[in-house]
Write a structure and sequence with these properties.
Layout: E1 4-10, H1 14-25, E2 30-34, H2 47-52, H3 54-72, H4 89-113, E3 117-120, E4 122-128, E5 134-139, E6 145-154, E7 158-160, E8 173-174, E9 188-192, H5 196-207, E10 211-215, H6 227-240, E11 243-245, E12 249-255, E13 260-265, E14 271-276, E15 278-281, E16 285-287, E17 320-322, H7 333-347, E18 361-363, E19 368-373, H8 376-382, E20 386-392, H9 397-401, E21 408-414, E22 420-427, H10 430-442, H11 447-451, H12 462-471
Parallel strand pairs: 1-2, 1-6, 2-3, 6-17, 8-15, 9-10, 9-15, 10-11
Antiparallel strand pairs: 4-5, 5-6, 7-16, 12-13, 13-14, 18-19, 19-22, 20-21, 21-22
Helix pairs in contact: 1-7, 3-4, 3-5
GO biological process, one term: 2-oxoglutarate metabolic process
Disulfide bonds: 49-54
GO molecular function, one term: flavin adenine dinucleotide binding
Length: 478
């Protein structure tokens, strides 16, 4: 095997493996370095997303939703289940692990198909030679080797942020990784952090029978979301029994063999203690930029540990790029993927770009929450004149037939030009419905354009059209 490549990608997560495949499609010789080991000790591709993030969490969300639906919501469909609905947690977790294995093996196949060289181990910059090429040592499996490339893409992702004085053992106190593999359903579960991961994992275990309490330091719920969406989501979660306390300050956290106690101060300043069987700490993520040897090539990170890049993910050094969770912007797998494609095409001499305003956000709770573009509060802060339309799923025949009529679609458009500025959805199918809004915004569509497009009937997508019509106060079914 040659040690010289056109492109080296450090990291085999969604950003890295997609960058490697796209570069290979464009005729480059590509190596991808990845060191992730699964519980069996095998080195695998896919990074956090496929192994302990997006994919396994969505598998558990689907399984837990099926369990809850079977146990509590079949009667309204005229279906009676004789006897108690039984949970086989080990089988549910095995299903999740099987999906993860299938997906990671799929990336291996794609690497072979596209002739991407996978180097198993840890990558560390050692120098930049006289020709301007980067030298990288790969170590950890077998003898260390040095590889060289003119172009390098850093795609090392992120890891869970831990709180000081709260040791993670992934048994009693877990981060996102441990929370995917509890060996039993806790009777009482505490979650620190009401962000995306905290809400999703809290929802999984609540559906399976846990009494879940979420402690959030911020004074408001889902501050990044549109205020109307956050209010609706909070109402739905409260109906489900997910207890969310805002504006808290965490104090001492003490563990025993049986559980954990969390001392905190509530938003009124009163001292409280929450006793639970398990605790999930979900307070954000930090970039994986340590241990890369960046100092050996003269590249510094900022105060948040991130690598500074321009709009096309170029670092301060020539032919060195960084994408995904190690750079600015939302820590989202699909954002990393798009950056990986963009960088591979930049290396090829093309002129791609990403409109970060058109990157969608999704929270896979029930109902799901999704949005793209500006929130109403952002438009108000900018002083931009806008008009808004909103339409509920409760008036949609398909949603009623599915017994999933919670939520709405909200659309914001420029007051003069009618260009769509933001779309916000609370719905069982928000993650799929938001794609239409992304396409529309990428093409600078007006709300009228969506209102004039024929949507299938009956379908949940009709709510998008009705919302667009509502922008001009001409919804047809309200």
């Amino acid at each position: 095997m040659s040690n010289q490549f056109d492109v080296i990608v450090i990291g085999g997560g969604p950003g890295g493996y997609i960058a490697a495949i796209r570069a290979a499609q464009l005729g480059k010789s590509v190596a991808c370095v990845e060191k992730w080991k699964n519980p069996n000790g095998e080195t695998v591709l896919g990074g956090t997303c496929l192994n302990v993030g997006c994919i396994p969490s969505k598998a558990l969300l689907a399984s837990s939703e099926t369990f809850e639906h079977t146990a509590h919501h079949l009667a309204e469909h005229g279906i009676t289940v004789n006897g108690e609905v039984q949970l086989d947690l080990a089988k549910m977790l095995a299903r999740k692990d099987g999906i993860v294995s299938k997906m990671t093996k799929g990336i291996e196949f794609l690497f072979r198909k596209n002739k991407v060289t996978w180097l198993k181990g840890h990558a560390q910059f050692t120098a930049r030679n006289s020709a301007g090429n980067y030298q990288i040592e790969v170590s950890g499996e077998g003898a260390a080797q040095t590889i060289t490339a003119q172009h390098v893409i850093i795609a090392t992702g992120s890891k869970a942020r831990h709180l000081p004085n709260i040791p993670i053992d992934n048994r009693i106190i877990a981060d996102n990784e441990g929370a995917l593999s509890f060996d039993s359903v806790p009777k009482k579960l505490a979650v620190i952090g009401a962000g995306v991961i905290g809400l999703e994992l809290g929802s999984v275990w609540r559906r399976l029978g846990a009494q879940v309490t979420v402690l959030e330091a911020a004074p408001s719920f889902l501050a990044a979301a549109d205020d109307g969406v956050a209010k609706e989501a909070s109402k739905q979660f409260a109906k489900q029994g997910l207890a969310i306390h805002l504006g808290v300050k965490i104090g001492d956290v003490k563990t025993t063999q049986q559980g954990v106690s969390i001392a905190y101060t509530d938003k009124e300043g009163k001292a409280q203690t929450l006793v639970a069987d398990r605790l999930i700490v979900s307070v954000g993520r930090v970039p994986n930029t340590d241990g890369l040897g960046l100092e050996k090539i003269g590249l510094a990170v900022n105060e948040r540990g991130m690598i500074e890049v321009d709009d096309q993910c170029r670092t301060q050094l020539p032919n060195l790029y960084a994408i995904g969770d190690v750079v600015r912007g939302p820590m989202l797998a699909h954002k990393a993927e798009d950056e990986g494609v963009m960088v591979a095409e930049v290396i090829d001499g093309q002129k791609p770009h990403i409109d970060y305003n058109c990157v969608p956000w999704v929270i896979y709770t029930a109902p799901e929450i999704a949005w793209v573009g500006k929130t109403e509060q952002q438009l108000k802060q900018e002083g931009r004149a806008y008009k808004a339309g909103q339409f509920p799923f409760a008036a949609n025949g398909r949603a009623l037939g599915m017994a999933k009529a919670e939520g709405f679609v909200k659309m914001l458009a420029d007051a003069k030009t009618d260009e769509i500025l933001g779309v916000h959805i609370v719905s069982s199918a928000a993650s799929d419905l938001i794609a239409e809004a992304v396409v529309a915004m990428e093409f600078k569509a007006a709300s009228e354009d969506i209102g004039r497009i024929c949507h299938p009937h009956p379908s949940l997508s009709e709510v998008m059209r009705e919302t667009a019509l509502a922008v001009e106060k001409r919804a047809l079914n309200m």
